[in-house]
Amino acid sequence: MNKDTKSGIIIFAILIAVIIGVTGLSLRNNKGSSVKISTSNKANQIVLDGNYDKEEIKGYKSEYVAAIYIEGVIQEENQNYNQKWLLSTIKQLKNDKRNQGIVLFLETPGGAVYQADEVYLALQDYKTSGKKVYAYMGSMAASGGYYIACAANEIWANRNTLTGSIGVISAQFVDISSLLKEKGIRTAIIHSGKNKAMGHMTEAYTQEQLDIMQSICDECYDQFTSIVSTSRQMPLAEVRTLADGRIYTARQALENKLIDHVDSWENCLANFTEKVLEKPGIKIESYRKEKKQNIRDYITGQISDLFTNQAAAQLGIPAKAMKEINQMSDGPMYIYLQ
């Protein structure tokens, strides 16, 4: 083993030791027993500050508001997001007479059209029970995140939120056929139907194929902008002017009537429980889908975060948003809301 190899192993071992020491990788509590990352859909109860009438609270002590956290890239499943769990949770809450409403906490750069629309429709169905939905935006609730927020009766945002990004990406064609030919590399895709292999990087794309994908993109865009128009009670032409794919700050979104309030998460919850439900002090149960991690995943994630944080700092965007954007680019092929 040469000197450089030994040095590399030592540096790697030190890095792992630092990560374990800083993050408590053993995941043990003070009693020494293992602490498992929760996968339960119902997590901690949120308690709002306030001098509430205890006698009044007794009248609805069995009732609660669900705070659902929608985090990560919106697709079928990834480390932070699970579509099946989310839809099941919304359905269960609709049928639970003790549940009095939903407040969404959105922390997402967007994702796939199909999954975002499924959640939007599930929330619309939930509201047929007579219950209301609020949406609150964290550091980023863009594209598919804003799409989902449009199902809410009111949309709130943190003052540092980035939102909007109303638009669609349907495909990216990369043609390397000329490069392969130059290098003397020959490829062949056996297919029937002239457009069956469109988008494959070894095949030259045609204008017809570009038009096909553009038509799909435009149809999804029409659906997105129509939902925004209906939700925000804005003329479609006005929505389309705003929906050029750009992101908006919370203040800009408020000025353009894309959201209703810029305030804190706690004040959003207080407004919903006290002014909408008129049930101050009602229980607020948090619903968050969390994924079990093994030690390898945890270490890999920590190392990856070091590089992600540096890149995010250079670009001037939240590190969490940078991480989720990277996750989106590495995911399966979807038509993305962007």
Question: What do these coordinates show?
Answer:
- With 338 residues, this protein is of the alpha/beta class.
- Helices cover 44% and strands 17% of the residues.
- It contains 12 helices and 12 strands.
- The strands form 2 sheets. Strands 1, 2, 3, 5, 6, 7, 9, 10 and 11 form a 9-stranded mixed β-sheet that branches. The protein has a 3-stranded antiparallel β-sheet with strand order 4-12-8.
- The chain is elongated, with a radius of gyration of 24 Å.
Q: Helix coverage percent of residues?
A: 40-55%
Count of alpha/pi helices: 12
- DSSP strand count: 12
- Overall geometry comes to elongated
Low-confidence stretches: 8-43, 328-334
SS content category: alpha/beta
Element-by-element helix/strand order: HEHEHEEHEHEEEHHHEHEHEHHE
Give the mean pLDDT.
Answer: 82
Distance between the termini: 49 Å
Rg, rounded, reads 24 Å
Residues in β-strands, percent: 15-25%
Question: Could you give a short account of the major beta sheet?
Answer: 9 strands, mixed
